[in-house]
Amino acid sequence: MDKKQSLYAYIKSDILNKIKAGDYKVGERIPTEVKLCETFNTSRTTIRAALNQLTMEGYLTRRQGSGTFVADKKLQQTLSNTVHHFNDQVKVQGKKPDITLIDIKVVPADDVLQQELTVNPDDPIQRIERVRKANGQPTQYEIAYIPWNMAPGITKHHAETSLYRSLKENYGIHVDKTTEHIEITLADEHLSTYLECDPGLPCFYIETIAEDDSENKVEFSRSYFRGDKTNFVIERNYPSTI
Question: What is the pTM of this model?
Answer without folding.
Answer: 0.69
